[in-house]
Amino acid sequence: MSENTILAGLVLLVAAGIVISWPFWMNSRKSKIKDKGSVAELEDSLHRLVTSVRDLDFDFDTGKIGEADYIEQRKLLIGRGVSVLKRLDEALFVQKELDDEIEDMIAAYRQKKAI
Predict the structure, then answer these.
(1) Per residue in 5-28, pLDDT tens?
(2) Residue 33's pLDDT is what?
(3) Cα Rg for the chain, rounded, in angstroms?
(4) pTM above 0.85?
(5) Per-residue pLDDT tens over the stretch 31-49
(6) How far, in Å, CA of 81 to CA of 47, rounded?
(7) How many C-beta atoms surround the C-beta of residue 49 within 10 A?
(8) Minimal CA–CA distance to 70: which of 54, 56, 90?
């Protein structure tokens, strides 16, 4: 075999490896991006639930919905809101821990650099 044939084979092998691994690399990257948006998604979900409760209260006050349906729907929406609020608190706690860890690392780096 000539050197050119071996080189062409290696180039094709590397290209095939990149093409095969590309979807796996993109999926892991997308999951990291999705995790970053989870706090915003939870806040948006909580806002929608609060708006739904207000709309439900308005509909009940104007007589558009019966008392039995109102009580059932309100309990359901409040329960979902509590669940979202708990998940939001957990996400914010994790985010604060990460922020504190980053700040500690920056302070240690600056202190090390100052010496």
Answers:
(1) 888 888 888 888 888 888 877 776
(2) 46
(3) 27
(4) no
(5) 554 555 588 899 999 999 9
(6) 9
(7) 20
(8) 56
Q: How far apart are CA 62 and CA 51, in angstroms?
A: 17
For the chain, the average pLDDT equals 86
Task: Compute the distance between CA of residue 5 and CA of residue 67 in angstroms, rounded to an integer.
Answer: 81
Q: Which long-range contacts (CB under 8 A, 24 or more apart) does 2-11 make?
A: none
What is the Cα–Cα distance from 60 to 48, expressed in whole angstroms? 18
Can you say how many angstroms the Cα of residue 64 is from the centroid of all Cα atoms in its chain?
37
Q: Which tokens sit at 67?
A: 């008392």
**Cα–Cα distance for residue pair 79/84, rounded to 1 Å:** 9
Angle between helices 38-61 and 3-36 (to 10 degrees): 40
